[in-house]
Task: structure prediction
Amino acid sequence: MLRRTLRKRRRDLSAAERRRCTAAIAEVAAPLIEDRSGKRFACYLPNDGEMDLTRLIKSLWRSGHHTFLPVLHGPRLRFLPYEPGTVLRDNHFGIPEPVEDADRRCKPSALNVVLMPLVGFDERGNRLGMGGGYYDQTFAFKQRVGRSGGPLLIGIAFEFQELDTLPFNAWDVPLDGILTESTYRHFGTG
Result:
């Protein structure tokens, strides 16, 4: 019920509010981008009312960063380069992803920053996703190395998606930070 309510609210944002938030998040993320110059960023293309990262991705390109998009592969994600002119095709959820090329994949552990969509989050870094568990399964190794190891996992959300608290399961991988149209908050030590 909570997931459905938050998804509806996200989809119901006006076009003007969506444009404002998209522009604002690119500004809020600027220090994060500068601090990680020349790094490998995993991003996503919006679906179901998620925050649109197009402006932020273009900033990453201009700053000389390497950007990657997730590609569904069984219960996990693979990450393939995303640059101007990348050929995309829709997966079975209707989300565009790069055409698979095994020689160009980036291992999840080799990414520096992962910008993750979400449905809800809390102040402890817990994330409510769409329910498929793809990010949790892909980054399960972070539970062994802790928040200070592996890529920085940053949730992307609208401010209204913050909740007082979310349940945490043993398989959930917590966020290292959250980026909204208003602020960047860091939860961990990485």
Observations:
- The mean pLDDT is 91.
- The longest helix spans residues 15-28.
- The chain has one domain: 2-186.
- Residues 47 and 95 are 6 Å apart (CA to CA).
